[in-house]
Amino acid sequence: MSAVQGTATGASPGATPGPGTTRSWWRRRRGTVLLALVVLLLLAVVVALSGDPETTTPLDPDNPGREGTAALVEVLAEQGVEVEVVRDAAALEAAEVTTTTTVVVSSTDDLGRSTVERLREHARPGLLVLLEPGPAASGALGTPPGISVPGGGPVPAACSAPGAAGSTGDRLDDLSLEVDAATAFPGPGCFPDGSGGHLLVGDDGEVVLGAAQALTNEQVLRADNAALALRLLGGGDRLVWYVPDLTDLAPGDAVSVRSLLPPWLLPGLVLGLVAMLAVALWRGRRLGPLSVEALPVVVRAVETTRSRGRLYRSAGDRPHAATALRAAARARLAERLGLGAAGGGADRVEPLVRAVATATGQDAGRVAALLDPDAPTPTTDHDLITLAQDLDRLDREVRHP
């Protein structure tokens, strides 16, 4: 009986879970399920956005920006030129190069001696065009280093000089160039300005273009830049665009800092150091032993007053002494009566005399005889002492009226 009841009340192994069991499972697993959904959503977004990435490298054929050359590549393809972009030395060697193939190299700062040798050997059957090689690439190519110059234009090709640009220059002779900035190379070449030519053709037919901005999306439509690009890169039926990679460099391709510096810098630094040492020796020379000077003597005010009095007495200069006594008395009285230090000047005697007479109740004439600088001067020492006593008494009366 008990066995029958257990079978009736218990859940059978194959029974379908009810609503309560489903809710319990969702409460236990909902965090994991939501996390999995978020991860799947993020993966979907990454996959949707991970198409062919656009680059911002200047002169790159996959760069649709202002400094890229994607527009030129598209036009060349429309003109029937087969364009192949390779981004490492191995891919370049795998690309087929014939006499009707043009090999153009951008990002030339990433070239080294080993990659230049491999590039020349592989591109020898066709036309090799290098865009704005820097100092390291110029050294590896054996071409003179260029200098950066501001653009302008339009600049005519002017390739008519014998041996200046060969057959390549003949195709460009009727064109003009206009760019914002360029690299000028010394020596004869196409598109010359005051600093040199912007396009050189070597003895092996290698073309070095210093005005590579003419190929960019922003400037290709200026002057005859588009015709220059099509004639220079679209002369054959195939174009291999090589974008070097730094990983292609051999260990010996490292460029020293000294090789990038101008040749006059080291002698200039040595000359500057010698000049600094000469100035230091000149300004730092000894002028002899230091002179010892006695310190000033401190004299008390009362001693100074007595000394001046003795000098006045020995000189017999009673007018000078009387003038000094009256001037000092006027300054003290003007300050005590609120007339300021300037009120005791010789040009403010009348207001001071009236103020002193009012404060002391004395006659203004007597006060003026004491304070006025034009008053009669003492003729004897007794008169001078009497004047000093009268001025002192007048000062006490003003202080204690």
From TrEMBL:
Protein name: Membrane protein
Short name of one Pfam family: DUF4350
Upper taxonomic lineage: Bacteria, Bacillati, Actinomycetota, Actinomycetes, Propionibacteriales
Sequence segments annotated as region (Disordered): 1-24
InterPro entries: DUF4350
Keyword tRNA processing: no
Transmembrane region(s): 33-51, 264-282
Native source species: Nocardioides aquaticus
Keywords: Membrane, Transmembrane, Transmembrane helix
Record-annotated DUF4350 domain positions: 61-233
